[in-house]
Specification:
Elements: E1 3-17, E2 20-34, E3 40-48, H1 65-75, H2 78-93, H3 113-122, E4 137-138, E5 146-147
Antiparallel strand pairs: 1-2, 2-3, 4-5
Length: 150
């Protein structure tokens, strides 16, 4: 069983509108679902409210979290939101399709850097070579000729 919890993150208000003050215009919300194992998923969004009529207006100072959640639940497709969260939780137990390496292609194991250096040294590479003639190159005229800095 999944337990769903609303969190109101922010309310954006118009300072005045049609003679009313502090009119809630946008609700920023988060809906989290958590199963019995503690696995959870959530989604966040915002919902713009239509302008209220004076009869339906609730003074900002009297608003409660339950009132604002009620506005969301009466205007959003809560069943759809819960389905999205439920599916995300399920995918954590059964990951979606992922690519695997082809079984007939054998990946070569990486050769350790030390082994590569040993092979290069055996072939004539000198890691501590010096520039004897001052031309900015070491191991001049060999397969290992390179600038001093490398």
């Amino acid at each position: 069983m999944i337990t769903y919890t609303w969190t109101i993150l922010q309310l954006d208000c118009a300072p005045s509108e049609n003679g009313l003050t502090n009119v809630v215009k946008v609700i920023y919300w988060d809906l989290t679902g958590q199963d019995e194992n503690g696995v959870s998923a959530s989604m966040s969004n915002s919902y713009p409210l239509p302008s209220p009529t004076p009869e339906a207006f609730a003074d900002y100072s009297t608003l409660t979290e339950e009132t604002v959640i009620g506005w969301l639940e009466s205007n959003l497709d809560v069943g759809y939101l819960q389905t999205v969260i439920t599916n995300e939780i399920a995918s954590k137990y059964n990951p979606p399709i992922t690519p695997l390496p082809l079984p007939w292609v054998k990946e070569e194991e990486p050769v350790p850097t030390e082994q590569i250096l040993e092979e290069m040294i055996a072939d004539g590479y000198k890691p501590d070579a010096r520039d004897g003639d001052g031309d900015g190159l070491v191991q001049d005229g060999t397969d290992w000729e390179r600038p001093i800095e490398t």
